[in-house]
Write a structure and sequence with these properties.
2 copies of one chain form a homodimer.
Chain A: H1 2-8, H2 23-49, H3 52-59, H4 63-70, H5 73-90, H6 105-120, H7 123-135, H8 140-168, H9 176-186, H10 189-197, H11 205-223
Helix pairs in contact in A: 2-3, 2-5, 2-7, 5-8, 6-11, 8-9, 9-11
The structure holds a DNA duplex (18 and 18 nucleotides).
Chain lengths: 226, 226
DNA sequence: GTCTATACGGAGATAGAC
DNA sequence: GTCTATCTCCGTATAGAC
């Protein structure tokens, strides 16, 4: 936003050559600035209490520009949340292809669910989650999106891994989809529920490990093959 | 609210004797009408989008009366939610003293968690839950209250039951508090998570029973004594 | 594409009569 | 205690110049 102002006043490079920004680039940078400011405002205030004036101030562009780009507050909200959800869950993906071929299944599951928990318990992601939950009645699309994103990037691949482990006789989970839901619920889900209602609850690293290990043991006590 | 109007016009009983309402009763009935209308409005619109004008219309009293009773929108919100949370969870209480003395522990746990699920999955209670979660950042008191209410009325008594079962050798759960969290997560928590993001998701009765039974089996595979 | 300036409605809250 | 009428401000959204 400081950069834009300089451009308008005739910025030059180190040889004194005027820098004429590509209009398309300038537009998409502004678009991004709007998205960033809007996300911060929505996370802090919720949808209804979020103010387009505040987003205007935060983004450094004019309110009319925001409306040209996004049309309305509702559409801005959906665009912002719909854009950030996949990015958020993309961080979770890497770790899960290793499950099917892990030499030590218990250790692999502990590592996977611990990685997930570390990310999903982050304050910004917890706030995003609370925001989406709180607006589900008014924006049901977000519920569908959340489900699809979290299923595609987490549960889905893990279901496949369990299916393969079943076939190989390394696991005995007749309903792999339910088994994944149970594993997630009993590991990540436990501290997540606490943090949902107590954002500032301190969860020591040792405590997280203990809870997650216990959850994995619970899971394997039922589904592991002898 | 129709009743109030009649009173004002000089209602009489069956013998023609004027009915003069006790002012304190009239006041507390109005107070209740405000609370009812406010709860409906907050559940439907969320805190910020809820309108004091709409609550005024819904309650049948004047806006000034609402402010005399509750002072501000914030205080009204806290009073309403703080009042309804304990009532909601009170429905869950009866079933849990039977756990420690149940002849068939598995059946008792299935029945208890099924009862809980039936209540907690009700659309009105799910909406209340979403509302509270969505406003946690702005009303952290509600998180504390939710935790205390749900702990006092559900988890707490169950922790005691597990402790007793441990002592009697009927259960081997070294950390009863964690065990309760795990049991709840893996039974009620599974369909609850689905409904949190998909309010209209249909959960057949047979499916609920299947999920909950499977969760109890998962739990007992680890913690039951042979 | 982007800005300034403004329209217009509805928000929360209160003054003052009864 | 309760009402009617009103104050004041801030909300979303847009018109029109550049």
């Amino acid at each position: 936003m400081g950069a834009e102002a300089q451009d308008a006043q005739g910025a030059t490079d180190e040889y004194g050559i005027p820098i004429i920004p590509d209009p398309a680039d300038a537009a998409s940078r502004k678009r991004q600035a709007i998205i960033d400011a809007a996300l911060a405002e929505f996370l802090a205030e919720g949808y209804s209490a979020a103010s387009m004036d505040a987003i205007t101030r935060g983004s450094g562009v004019s309110k009319a520009t925001i409306y040209k780009h996004f049309g309305s507050k509702e559409r801005l909200f959906l665009a912002v949340i719909g854009g950030v959800l996949p990015k958020t869950y993309a961080d979770l993906e890497p770790s899960n292809s290793t499950i099917a071929d892990a030499p030590d299944l218990r250790a692999a599951l502990v590592r996977l669910t611990t990685d997930w928990a570390r990310i999903l318990l982050r304050p910004d992601i917890m706030s995003l989650r609370r925001l989406v939950i709180g607006e589900i009645d008014r924006f049901p699309q977000l519920g569908q999106l959340w489900y699809r994103v979290s299923y595609d990037m987490n549960n889905g691949p893990l279901v496949e891994a369990f299916t393969e482990l079943n076939a190989r006789g390394a696991l005995a989970a007749p309903d792999p989809k339910l088994a994944v839901q149970q594993l997630v619920a009993v590991t990540v889900g436990v501290p997540q529920l606490v943090r949902t209602f107590s954002p500032d609850a301190v969860i020591e690293d040792a405590e997280l490990t203990r809870v997650i290990s216990s959850g994995v043991d619970l899971f394997l006590a039922r589904y592991a093959t002898a």
